Amino acid sequence: MKKNLLTVTMCLASAAAFAQGQTISGQIVDGAGKPVIGATVVEKGTNNGTATGNDGRFTLRSRTATPRLQISSIGYASQEVDAAGGTVSVRLSDASTGLGEVQVVGSRSQNRSVTDSPSPVDIIDLREVTTKTGQLDVNQLLQFVAPSFNSNRQTGSDGADHVDPATLRGLGPDQTLVLVNGKRQHQSALVNLFGTRGRGNTGTDLNVIPAASIERIEILRDGASAQYGSDAIAGVINIVLKSSVKELTANVNYGAYDAKYRFDDKNFDGGNFNANLNYGIGLGEKGSFVNATVDYNLRQHTQRANVPNADGLARREYGDPEIRNLSGYLNSRFALSDRSYFYVFGGGNKRKGDAYAWTRFADDDRNVPAIYPNGFDPIISSDIWDASAVAGLRTALGEWELDLSNNFGSNRFEYGVKNTLNSSLGASSPTSFNAGGFQLQQNVVNLGLTRNYKTVLQGLNVAAGAEWRREWYSLFAGEEASYRNYDPQSGAASGSQGFPGYQPTDAIKAQRDNVAAYADAELSVTQRWLLAGALRYEHYSDFGSTLNYKLATRFNLTEFLTLRGTYSTGFRAPSLAQVNFNSTFTNFINGEPVEVLLARNNSAVTQKLGVPSLQQETSNNANIGLTSRIGSSLSLTLDGYYIKVKDRVVLTSQFSADDPVIGPDLQALNVDQAQFFANAADTRSIGLDVVLSHTLPLGAGRLNSTLAANVNNLKIDRVRTSGRLTGREEEFFGAREQAFVKASAPPSKINLTFDYQVGRFGALVRFVRFDKITLIDWDGNPMKYDRRVTTDLTLNYALTNQLQFIVGSTNVFNRYPTLFDPQRTETGGAWDPVQMGSNGRFYFAKLQARF
């Protein structure tokens, strides 16, 4: 009875809402009276919205008695208008007419829109994406939306189980620069090891920023070291935080996986609960605001160890880690005058995780039967603190605009191990340990000046600036019992099983400084032809100086066809973690435990081998593209690219203790194998990005269709060796390690999406095709993961003007990667981490409120 009453009440509420709505139509134009295509039109305080067509017109059925519209478009100042009359006409002014708009990444001209940028830029509206998809964190959201972006959920990869690495165009995680509101975001302190994508790289943890705090994400798919500095070889990801006011948004989300491979009677696992709240307060009449977000996420374990088609069993526990994540973020601006304002933004993230390590079976000589008569499954736990804060001043100085800011960020990663033991202590061993960890901090002082000369030909924008950056890195030891062998004569293993703690000899503190100066200009020679250039000088206290440049052009061949191209040089200084990381850990090769030394760059081992000090990577990047609007509802972008990276920093192959050159040194250190960081490879990437969008009125609604694809071919042109290892290229950086680098992205990824909206009902169907990749097992045999297509389905319905309900499934047909013997994989499961994931079908439901 109560259920029927609830159904009737909801239907009546929906009917009442329909009754009070009215049809609103209008046109959005720019300052010159030309239609603004793709402008976002949202009814304030509701989930109701649409976008303008190629004639700048829109039609929207309101859900409130006195509708007010929020209108925005990249490169223009946002506006709010009263739409109670049913018809509106809005003229958007360029963002350069007033301070405050975040520039589109790839250009320092404040009135440069994404459609006329000389570089390819993706603009991803997080409001739309989070409403219509099942993914909850930023990495996974982008993985299934942006074709050139790749992020793999890791399993069996120690620290990378807790921090997902991400890449652009198949390059390394540390070759993409991440900005927040245009300011450099600090990297994670973690070095990715084992079978992860981005093996041997550091990267930026995008998941510390809750999706609920983000207005949009801009992805510059082009080399940009000359514009933004080190790490921008593959491109730039700019996260723009929300600045909305007088609007409360709340979301509650829950989902779970179909537990196909569990050995117990559970039908679902990997429960994922997320709740968030966002609200903005306006302060005065000059655009001051404070916008704040809180977000909580609990992601539970999945269990995928019991795979019937695999030949062996390496682990009893295998699957996603459990993650508990709490975030708070703030974005604010305080007007000092009509031409000046002070801004503050940033936030904090606290993450705790539990990840499965390799099983120690009952008869394992690393087990103590008195403690674990049935063997044990160690748990590697993480305690991660991440925080950032940016404060700055933007003001007008005559015709110039000045931006002065200070940015501080910190990432601290502490390891723990539980459900474990130190076998050298026998039956008296503790079962949990503090294993140590590492921390990376960054402080950036940035000064930028921008001026637009409207009377120089068709417009000239000039920018210049300087930056000072200091970085600190520390690695600290765990408690003694986590690494010490208390009975070496017995042959017992040292330290905590699952993850030996860092030793005092691993511990280090390091820092470096960087100073930079840049200048860039964009000249509209005619209304159809744009020329741009950038020059940047940087000096590192530990690597010396570098000078890089970028040239770009865009030419409108016709009213509907535009040609664009860029050429740039780039660089990336090795991270402090890559230079200073040192560890002795346990790896499993064909199921057998092996002690491995990862020696820091200036260690005794690397010096004896003659491995030179790490130096910066350099790159050459070319992009040529074509953009077109065909008819009134079809748009197309084609961008081909070439990226050459020289002296790429990689993690070498592992050298064994019986090696004729390095063996005696390893035996003296009591380790079985060793590997290290080196500038060992030159790589070359050739690829194509394609985005095709179409809008079609269908019945009383509208169907938006998008085809987005990335085709990428990465080759390793040359392997460099040196010192005592000269001539041993295949052993120094062998086929197995090369395969991990190449597998950072599939050779192609194709995304086909159909999004239909009619009245209060919406449906989205998305197909993602992941191309085949090849890895190599411990014996040198190829492991070919076949291409797969995943299918997502989402249904959404507006229950009331302010309340929306969404249900759906990702990977609705429950596709899994190709199965392998767990003894052959790097992770000990039936799969290595591949792009499509290995958890199967995911069901989800969301309730979204907007007031």
UniProtKB/TrEMBL annotation:
Its main location: membrane. GO terms for cellular component: cell outer membrane. Residues 1-19 form the signal peptide. It is found in: Cell outer membrane. InterPro entries: Beta-barrel_TonB, Beta-barrel_TonB_sf, CarboxyPept-like_regulatory, Plug_dom, Plug_dom_sf, TonB-dep_rcpt-like. PROSITE patterns: TONB_DEPENDENT_REC_3. Keywords: Cell outer membrane, Membrane, Receptor, Signal, TonB box, Transmembrane, Transmembrane beta strand, Transport. Residues 399-805 form the TonB-dependent receptor-like beta-barrel domain. Pfam families: CarbopepD_reg_2, Plug, TonB_dep_Rec_b-barrel. It is a multi-pass membrane protein. Gene3D superfamilies: Carboxypeptidase-like, regulatory domain, TonB-dependent receptor, beta-barrel domain, TonB-dependent receptor, plug domain. Residues 114-236 form the TonB-dependent receptor plug domain. Belongs to the TonB-dependent receptor family. This is Iron complex outermembrane receptor protein. It comes from Hymenobacter luteus.
